[in-house]
Design brief:
Layout: E1 6-11, E2 14-19, H1 30-45, E3 51-56, E4 60-62, H2 81-98, E5 103-107, E6 110-112, H3 114-120, E7 124-128, E8 132-134, H4 148-156, H5 158-167, E9 170-172, H6 173-178, E10 184-186, H7 191-202, H8 207-220, H9 225-240, H10 243-253
Length: about 260
């Protein structure tokens, strides 16, 4: 597929997916959804991909849905937004979270609506100092989607989640970092350099082990302690049988840097 709304490349084990509709602040239309999905197909198909980096071109990361696609019928019939979530946004979020590799997001500008929650569903989020996060749904009479109502209380707590969702105030990148919503704020000019360096590092690490870490942390959101202890036991058994574990132990004994294969 020839991409028109995104840029996509794979180099040194890192897949870089860049949203590329800068004139609309990288808002999503149907074509962008289809192209992002096709890029993720390539990520799944390429065994050499061991980290995904998601970012955007221009002044914004993404402002979510392109509202120019939201058309009311001749008798003022409302568009079926539930259908849009079922067909496009929910599968994208589920697929992103299910990837068995680290998913890194570099938020280069405003991340609003579904664009904010797309970023927050990634494993590690870096943001430019000028970036911001906006739960803009309430301004349109809508509900935070793309996992927003699940994510926000877990990231920032009940009180802050309700304030962000009910008021729709812009949250600066620095405040998002202070609240534990994202991993780190970096200077604008350093964002991509730092993000690529981190992505390349993650691409050299024990990929299966990192996937098990993601699985355990996701499950911990709902498990009680005993269930989580059992899951840790089961995942540790799988991790202990990996080639990367053998390499890590051998490198430790030989006092050298490990060379992980991701297997």
């Amino acid at each position: 597929m020839k991409f028109e709304t995104i840029d996509f490349s794979i180099l040194d084990g890192v897949a870089v997916l860049t949203l590329n509709r800068p004139k609309t602040l990288n808002s999503f239309n149907v074509q962008m959804h289809e192209e992002v999905n096709a890029a993720l197909d390539r990520v799944d198909a390429e065994n050499k991909v061991r980290c995904l980096l998601l970012t955007g071109h221009g002044r914004g990361f993404s402002t979510g849905q392109d509202l120019s696609e939201r058309k009311f019928g001749p008798y003022d019939e409302a568009p079926d937004l539930g259908h849009s979530l079922e067909v496009y946004y929910n599968p994208l979020i589920r697929r992103l979270r299910a990837l068995q590799i680290p998913v890194l997001c570099a938020v280069n500008g405003v991340a609003a609506g579904a664009g904010a929650n797309l970023a927050l569903n990634c494993d590690i989020v870096l943001a430019a100092r000028s970036a911001s996060f906006v739960q803009a749904f309430c301004k349109l009479g809508l509900v935070p989607d793309s996992g927003g109502t699940w994510l926000l209380p877990r990231l920032v707590g009940r009180a802050r989640a309700r304030g962000l969702a009910l008021l729709g105030d812009k949250l600066s990148a620095e405040q998002a970092e202070a609240w534990g919503m994202i991993w780190k704020v970096v200077d604008d000019e350093a964002l991509m350099e730092d993000a690529l360096a981190l992505a390349r590092h993650l691409a050299t690490q024990p990929t299966k082990g990192l996937a098990y870490i993601k699985q355990a942390l996701d499950a911990a959101e709902d498990n009680d302690m005993n269930t989580q202890l059992d899951l840790e036991r089961d995942l540790q058994k799988k991790a202990g049988g990996s080639a990367d574990y053998r390499e890590g132990v051998a490198a430790f004994k030989e006092k050298r840097s490990p060379v992980f294969s991701g297997k």
